[in-house]
Structures are given as structure tokens and as C-alpha cells.
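Hey all, sorry for the wall of text incoming. These are the two entities for the joint prediction.
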Amino acid sequence: MTALNIIKAINAGLRRSMESDAKVLVMGEDVGKLGGVFRVTDGLQKDFGEDRVIDTPLAESGIIGTAVGLALRGYRPVCEIQFDGFVFPGYDQIVNQVAKMHFRSGGRLRLPIVIRIPYGGSIGAVEHHSESPEATFVHIPGLKVVTCSNPVDAYWMIQQAIALDDPVVFFEPKRRYYEKAEVDVDGEPDLPLESARVALPGTDATVAAYGPMVKTCLDAAAAAADDGRSLEVIDLRSLSPLDLRAVYDSVRRTGRLVVVHEAHRTLGVGAEVAARVTEECFYSLEAPVQRVTGYDTPYPPARVEEEYLPDLDRVLDAVDRTFAY
Amino acid sequence: MTVETAAGATPPEPELVQLLTPEGQRVPHERYDALIADITGDDIRSMYRDLVLGRRVDGEAVALQRQGELGLWASLLGQEAAQVGSARALRAQDHVFPTYREHAVALCRGVDPVRLLALFRGVDQGSWDTDESRFHLYTIVIGAQTLHATGYAMGVQRDGAIGTGDPERDTAVIAYFGDGATSQGDVNEAFIWASVTNAPVVFFCQNNQWAISEPLERQTRVPLYRRAAGFGFPGVRVDGNDVLACLAVSREALQRARDGEGPTLVEAFTYRMGAHTTTDDPTRYRLNAELEHWKLKDPIERVKAYMVRGDLADQAFFDGVEQEAEELAVHLRAACRALPDPTPTSIFDHVYVEPTPDLVAQREAMSTYLDSFAEEVAR
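and here's what came out:
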């Protein structure tokens, strides 16, 4: 077992993938000597060379577009987008080219590209550094979208994403980057990439979350337990495809569901979860599905971001509403 | 508003590499003669054939669209020499990243034109074998493929497939795009990437003077080939209606790439003699006199004149090519109409490498829904 935070876990996962497959490349702004602005790629260029860890020019469309060409040549590029809000200059290449190439070629071409995006708020940053654009990728067929919430998942999921022949958008919860856990780096992953996980079993209500909000919900569950209420927390992990089997199982037992994410409310992942749970668990529901999300405003100035973001109290408030219904 | 050039000076007419005048006269060129010194009469005849067949594929496709057999077609009329000249400069191992108008390049790379028709008929979105032809799929978002070409060229670099001196190993990549695309961010990013990585890529811009209805002046205030200087690699303007000049200039640029000397921008100065696509109406935005002017520079007529003048071909040869074009046209018409529609549920086949549970369920739902109508009909 090795104690790793999420940054070091992803770094270790990248390193392992690069060791086992010489076609794996890392590319992005400042990923070389600097090791990335969050140091996720720290030391990789020194060990794998400038041909495999590429400091790119400062242009996100160029990062993704050249990754397409490299992938067509047989490489497996892992692209770093420096911050969530900066993915949009590359959005055209992701949506129009990366997502569709396998489909439009009738299955002949594959683009095994991973696009890593540190996302989410609560870090006191300026604009475009705290956003949660995951739903805008979940909406695009052809992309897989996953997000880790802890070092163990970070270590395995990045390797699983790189090994996949489909393009993957890999969201990293930047406010949780420094959360530590013991990781069995020589073991085996206990779950396939595209599956949810019960983070905390419970009996009274179900709380589904992903990425940075999993910890918030676990904290909420601990507080609820003090009040004698048992919450089951589910870490969705894979947002596309969305694996809701664990959520359905849970809701059939609890009859109550709260979905939590930092991203805006309207047409967010929570809306899709609510719709599907209504389709699958209609007779089990004791209350309407509640959503605890960022508000439908642009991401606000940092001094009010804690009021914008879901927190423990807002999660518990929503749980209360499912019981009051 | 009239746009004044700096200090009111008239910019000097940019040098345009030309080896064959519109009248079919071979003119010497100090730099580029050597690059086509090996070209024989057979080569000229073979290029003439590609030009004629390319134009014929295009003409048939326009006709098929008019008959309702294709949803759309983007005509290459007038750009045959730029396409054939550059494509004939490629080696088997080189890779091509086209727009959606490179039909004559496709032909030169051995892509069955029926595959091009299938795309514009709406049967598929690109079904040719890109490994075999090394002619990648058509790209419709303007300029996006220049980045793919550059990334591909970076892969070639990493594979050590440049600068070895082995003519069968050293590999170049060529990206096709138009004058309108030069305004796109992606094209400018591709120029930067290629420049700083010294990638083995040739940027082949067919400046056909029009981006749908917008003339070149809406895209640039300097000749396009001069943009290369700002990015730090050579740029050259070639008579895009001169197949020999396009061949020579492309050969030089591609060899630079294969030798590891980096990118080149080629601006093939040509003219879109047809509409942007079959849905466009150029009479709304350009004068017929302009088209008439360019007709005098027709890329095929000048080769024919050159061949006749130099006794490189007799009437039997020209008749033979015409006959071959006619046979190709008959084949295309029949093959296009015979293309089967995809089955509706096939849309689920290749969204991902393995179908996801959601897509399996949606496919079943579509199947059940469609089958319910079949049962009604049966009743």
C-alpha cells in the first residue's frame, strides 16, 4: 500500500500506462518541465523524454486536433486541458472530430484519446477556473465521460481510460486533488471503468454524486447518521455511459433519491438521473427526486462560490425534503 | 468602405510558378524544371487521363444530384490540375488529409469514386479504406483536418519515418484546404504546431478565390502564400491550373517534408468554376465575365494544347480517354443508384467500439417500434 493523493495517484497511473505501452503520449500546456500547473505530470518528461511528454503550443484546439492525427497514426495521446473553462477552444475538435470518427468511418477508425480536465470550484479562483462542464460532454454520443472522487479510483480509472479504444473525457476533481488514501498500486482494479460504486451503504435515503461532491455527500451522511438517519451514497464514476444499476437497486429499497453535482441544474446529469429513476423505479419512489446543484448562473466570483456550490447542509436539506413530502 | 493598402502602394504581383501557359506553351523555370525533368510523354498522357476522369466523375455527380440521386455535391470543376498535380507528387506511403472537394485526389489515390458518391448520397459518412489508400476521410468542418494532418505528421516523426534517405520509408503528409479555411483558428494553429515541431506536412491551399459567396478579399489582405513567412516556413504560389507546375512545386515541398526539413505552404492559385455546392447559386454574387476569364485558363485544355503542340498524343488517344470517361460515367450512374440504404438499426453499430447497455436498449426499442408497423402491414 502506498499513501497517495489524487495528483500523485494519476501521476502513478500515467507512468504505469506509459511503461506498459510505448504508444502512450502525454501532451498539453506546461506538462513537461513544469509537470503541469497541478504537477499531475511531474517527472514524466524527465523519464519518458520530450517525444512522449509534449509541451504543446498554447492552443486547445491544436492539442485535441493534433491528438486526432497522432491517434490515427497509432498513438494513444493523453491530453491535458489546463482548466475546465479552457476546454471550449478545443470543444469543436472534441465534438465534431473526436466523438464521431469511429462512427463516421463505419467502425474502421478508432481514436483512443484521453482528455484530462481538472474541474470544479471551491478553490478561490478567477473566472473559467472553477467550472463543471461535464454535462456538455455527456450529451455527445461517441464520448465516454468519467470522473474520479478519490486516489484509488484516480489511479485505476486513468489507466483503464487509456487502455480503452474509445475517446474518454476524464474529469479530475481539483478541489480534492490533495485528499490522501492508501492505494495498492500493484493490485488490480476492483471495478470496470464504466460502473458506479456504492461509496457508503445505507437504508433510509439514496444520495447519488460524483467527483468532488462524493466527499461532500459522505460528510453529509456522517452528519445524518448522528441524527439517526442512514444515507446510502453512490459514486456514479461513469457519466457516459451512465451506470444507474446501483442507484435503481438503492432507490427500490429507500424510495428516496437526492442527486448532487456542482454543475448547473438545468439539463445537468441530475436531470438525466431523475428522469431515468422515474422510468425505472416509479412505484418505489416515496418522493420526487431532489437535485442539489450549482445554480443556473455563470460561475460566480470566488467570494460567493460557497453559497453557489452544494454543501453538506444543502444536501441534508434536500434529504429532509424527501422525507417531508 | 474601401480598404486602402498601406501607404496607397500597389502590392507587387506575387510570383506565380508556371510551367505551362494557358495556351499550352511550356515555359522554362530556373528552379522547377529540374523537378519534372523525369516526366515522360507517358506521364503527361496519364496525368491528362486523371484530369479528364476527375472532371467526368465531378460532372456525373452534379448530374446525379440534379436527378435526386445525391443529397449534395461539392464540385471541383476548375481545380483538377491543382488536385492531380499535387496528388501525382505523392508516394505510396504518403498520407492525405482532404476537405470534401478533393475528388480528383481521391481518384489518384485509388479510392473508388462510388465511395465518394455514397457519402453525398447519404448512405454513409466515409467508407473508403484509409489504411490502403492513405487518403483520409473527408472533413466538412473547415480547416479541422489541417490539425489532424499535423498530428499525423508528428506521429511520422516519432516513428522515425523521415530523413532516413530511404525513398520507400520517408513519409510526408499533405493537408488540403481552401482560401476560406485560412481564416480559421485551426489552420493557424496547425501552421504553428507544424512550424515549432518541424513536422513533415505540406499545407496545400487551393485558393479558388471564393468561400461560398465571399471573395478572397474577405479573408486576407496579403497573398496567402506569404502568410507562411510569419509562421517560419516557406510559402510558394503556383498556377493552380497548371498541372506540371503543381506537380513540381508539390514534389519539392513533399520531399522537404520527407527529408525532415519541415512544413511548406503551397498556394495553388485557381478558380472554382462551378458553384460552391449544388445548393449554391453563384450568379447572386459574382459576375459571369470572371468565369469567362478563367475559362480561358482551363486546366485541361492547356494540357491538351501542350500535347497536341508537342505531338505527345494523337486523336485516337484523346478519343480513348473520352471513351474511358464515358464508361466510368455509365458505371457511376448505375453503381450510385444501386447503393443500398443502410438499415435503420445500423446507426447504433459504431458509436463506441463496444455497444453500451443504453445503446443496446435503444436499438431494441427502435427495432420493436419499426417491427410494429411491419405487423400492421401484414394484417
